[in-house]
Amino acid sequence: MHAILNVIHWNIDPVIFEIGSFGLRYYALCFLAAFVVSYVLMLQVFKKEGKTQELLDQLSIYIFLGTLIGARLGHCLFYEFDYYVQHPLEMILPFRMNNGNFELTGFQGLASHGGALGILTGLFLFSRKTKTDFIWIADRLVLVVPLAGAFVRLGNFFNSEIIGLPSSLPWAVVFEKHDMVPRHPGQLYEAIAYVIIFFIMWSMYRKNAKPKAGYFFGIFLVLLFGARFFLEFFKENQEAFENSMKFNMGQLLSIPFMLVGLYLIFRKPKDSKK
Question: Which residues are a 1,2-diacyl-sn-glycero-3-phospho-(1'-sn-glycerol)-binding (predicted)?
């Protein structure tokens, strides 16, 4: 990476090293770091509130699977529905047949909104399996989700994906894998926003570990998806069909999450029993 004429040129190889057909990518490391750091922080929360590490281990499995499955299906259904409705197996298989030839593709395309829905589904299944209150778990899990999201967006930056709109700002980045146009580093904007949200949530929890049920969850939904809605104005649309829309898919999908968050924040305490 080098700076020329107040513009940052970014052309790093997303693959750290390759051994045969296996390649270790920065994105994979960021994804792994997201789960490891989240686990360590959640372990502190569980110990503080008298929950066992075994319960956290079970929760981690549900969250990991929910995140991957939800993010993958979210991308396929929200952004490339026309293609994947014709090739449904490619939603879940990391390869495809191209003109009769086997092609290893990996899982190209993960949507954060789908990941959010996957996490909520995982939480629901976990709460039923372990007889743990859904809202209690949600209020604690959202303390670390923003930090995990920051790691994922850092991985997107290494991949030179989810790029921003053209910009003349001094910190604009030229993603040479796409073109030579200076752009907003949208991935870093989101990563920074999520780190700030993490510190806000963590500070709130340390000051008030037992708020109204659903309050932390609501604050999280409003802050994170509000930031996502706003920062979409600095990013290129991910798919061509979004170009004719006033608000892109990421913004439209953020609105329901924000509305649910507002409800959880302002609902009366007696509703918490429902």
Answer: 153
Mean pLDDT of 242-250: 82
Nearest to 115 by CA among 79, 67, 64: 67
Domain chopping of the chain, boundaries:
26-167+185-273
- Helix, strand, or coil (residue 174): strand
Query: Residue 11 is inside which H or E element, if any?
Result: none
CA dist., res. 147 & res. 18, Å (int): 28
CB count within 10 Å of CB 71 equals: 23
Would you say 153 is a known binding-site residue?
yes
Rounded Cα distance between 24 and 158, Å, is 12
Adjacent-strand bridge partners of 10: 175
DSSP string, 61-123: HHHHHHHHHHHHHHHHHHT-HHHHTT-GGGGT-SEEEETTEEEE-------HHHHHHHHHHHH
CB 107 within 8 A of CB 142: no
CA 223 to CA 152: how far, in whole Å?
18
Angle between helices 186-207 and 145-158 (to 10 degrees): 160
pLDDT in tens, 54-70: 999 999 999 888 888 87
d(CA 267, CA 215): 9
